[in-house]
């Protein structure tokens, strides 16, 4: 690139720097960062031409979004009639929310500082809060349910992932920020809150009454059951949290050699930590098998292999899943199905196919976003499709309410009987 163009660039940077110093001093101090942004833009827009010389691309002259943002900011700051209505911090947060929401991924969202604090508090589900036990976030105008704790008041009321809360009692959530919405949902124990909910999958609006409560649900619970002269271990996993693996280890150590088959119940298990789900699956799966693979945009793809635990490797397994089984529970269910021939019983899973992370920013706000896609051992990505069960059976609410009969659990027992009576050659063909 010629000296002339280098001179133009240097002059432009110095001119902008001088102008912004004046504006910062006289009008709006927050714009001192703008010359740095423009200077960086200059170097991003340099490229080599056919003669291998550096030139400025035509995009240099475009009216980009950041320039538009600056112009609007300045116009409102200088000319808007009622300055008392201007809260630039709130306006910036709202702009960032809509900017991120435009991606169209329900699991990617921007949280301002207050919302981030509320979200962080909500996911600490082992604490005892007197409320409905659902993790929520603000999605555009409404409050969206992100997580529902198994056997919580929200779970019992059939609130689900991606449900949009339109009203809390008679107050529209469009008029509330997330912090205010959470405060209204919470309340004294045994009191009721009426939620007007839009269920996206069914495309219906319902009024749901939820009774607030304090609960303490263990991440792992279990019982030994006698069935047809055989002993089975029934294991219920509420989530894959920090204490899940330790409790699972205690369970295995206590009951080693006391059971002949396993029912793994992951109904309502809506999320968890990926490495913990891999570790738990390793108790059932031979060593060094690929449990899942995660593809990232920025990072190298990652394979999660089974470890050397193998304590339950040779036992028949039936897995219970449902429409609220998502994320880590789907990974475990698919791995057990593909690698050891476990049977999946009940309805389709939630199809949460992506892996999320949350990054906290300098002002205590955060962005929670999808960073990868996970795949089953057979290479399937459960994207907009359910993890299909081998045996489909609906939950009979009336039987459970009046007779305490769990129709899915009973069907799991029937499937286990069938697995144990298969001829050896058929079973080997099916497992492999």
Describe the structure.
The chain has 432 residues and is α+β, with helices and mostly antiparallel strands. The chain has three domains: 3-86, no CATH class; 109-211, PDZ domain (Pdz3 Domain, Roll); 220-431, 2-enoyl-CoA Hydratase, Chain A, domain 1. Helices cover 35% and strands 24% of the residues. It has helices at 3-26, 34-44, 65-79, 88-101, 113-123, 153-156, 178-185, 244-255, 274-281, 328-340, 397-403, 407-421, 424-431; strands spanning 46-48, 54-56, 109-111, 134-139, 142-148, 164-168, 171-172, 192-199, 204-211, 220-227, 230-237, 261-265, 290-296, 302-305, 317-321, 343-346, 354-360, 366-375. The strands form four sheets. Strands 4, 5, 6, 7, 8 and 9 form a six-stranded antiparallel sheet that branches. Strands 3, 13, 14, 17 and 18 form a five-stranded antiparallel sheet that branches. Helix 1 (3-26) packs antiparallel against helix 2. The radius of gyration is 27 Å and the shape is globular.
The major β-sheet equals: 6 strands, antiparallel
Calculate the terminal CA-CA distance, rounded to whole Å: 64 Å
Number of strands: 18
CATH topology label of the largest domain: 2-enoyl-CoA Hydratase, Chain A, domain 1
Based on CA atoms alone, the radius of gyration comes out at 27 Å
> Which quaternary structure do these chains form?
single chain
Name of the CATH first level of the largest domain: Alpha Beta
Total domains: 3
**Structural class given helices, strands, pairing?**
alpha+beta
As a percent range, the share of strand residues is 15-25%
Shape: globular
Supply the CATH architecture of the largest domain.
Answer: Alpha-Beta Complex
The H-level CATH homologous superfamily of the largest domain, spelled out, is 2-enoyl-CoA Hydratase, Chain A, domain 1
Which blocks of ≥5 consecutive residues have pLDDT under 50?
Answer: 24-46, 58-62, 125-129, 423-432
H/I helix tally: 13
- Determine the mean pLDDT: 77
In helices, the fraction of residues equals 25-40%
